[in-house]
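A quick aside before the break. I want you to see a complete sequence-to-structure record at least once, exactly as it would be stored in a machine-readable document. Don't worry about memorizing anything.
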Amino acid sequence: MAKLHITQDDHGYWMLSHEGDDGALTLVAHQFATPAKPLGMAQELIAEGRFHGQIVMDPPRGASPTAAVPAAAAPGEYVTPKPRKAGA
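That is the input. The structure line, written in tokens, reads:
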């Protein structure tokens, strides 16, 4: 079954990845400070009938879920992350 994964990258930013039926991952969107935008994008894809599958979301990383400020990458330090499966 296809899945949309909402996870954090190594800098603490949130991203949306698509996992196809064959298990291949594709990065859809990245570099969001909170999970709200990628979750909204995933719900919109389902509501529009453009995606049929599940949404899987990782809990926030870090000591406290209320510490929602991501670790800021220095200019030139941030690179496009690889897609990531939730729960992995």
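Two observations worth writing down. Residues 3-57 form one domain. The longest helix spans residues 36-47. We'll return to this after the break.
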